[in-house]
Design a protein that fits this description.
- Strands 1-2 form a two-stranded antiparallel sheet.
- The chain has two domains: 40 residues; 179 residues.
- 76% of the residues lie in helices and 2% in strands.
- The longest helix has 91 residues.
- By secondary structure, it is mainly alpha-helical.
- It is rod-shaped.
- It is built from four helices and two strands, in the order H-H-H-H-E-E.
- The N terminus is likely disordered.
Amino acid sequence: MISTNALCLTRAGKSARNGAGVKFKDVFPVICVVLLIISEAFLFSANHQKSVAQAKLIEAQREVSDLETEFIQFTNSIIANESEELIRARAENKDLPRLRSQIEQLQADNTKLLQELNTAREALGQRQEQLQEIQMQSAQDMQNQQAQAQAVEQAVTQTETQERNTCISNLRLIYAAKQAWALEKNKTDSDVPAEQDLLPYLKGNIFPVCPAGGTYTIGAVGQLPTCSISGHVLPPQ
């Protein structure tokens, strides 16, 4: 009798274990599908954030490019219209007030360009921070990271171009101040003014500073001022 009961219990235990195994086999594929859906959702969210950041970066690049185009047009206009008038003013020795007015206008335009450059730099910095955060969230997507790095590099190049154009505007301002100094002080093309000599002809008695950290060389009246940064060169007047 005892042997028969033990045999029945043994068979019942086996049946229960077999039933639990069958249930786990049925549930396991469902668990795998749920985990796959969750991972796909995280990946989709990371890619969407990348796309948004890239779009904002492209917009910032376009803004910097528009500023650069505007500045180049302004520079060409100054070269075409102002250079001959400055030389004629020196020859006639009678147009110092107008020359001072032109210098003030140049300084106002230069201040506006500096403000636009700072705005472009801040926008670029924000885009770079956004890209760094997204890169940390999805380090597995190497192709997207390389594309983002190239976009940032292009934006940096455009910012350097804006700095160069702003420096050229400063050099043009220094050149105009030299002409005014020579006209008022009856100097020749071979005379070399000091920085202090040109301050009275600059707004606020402040000498321009290269936005890229370059050093200016004033030079003689008949020479163009120069900057120590390569590429920051004033076109021939």
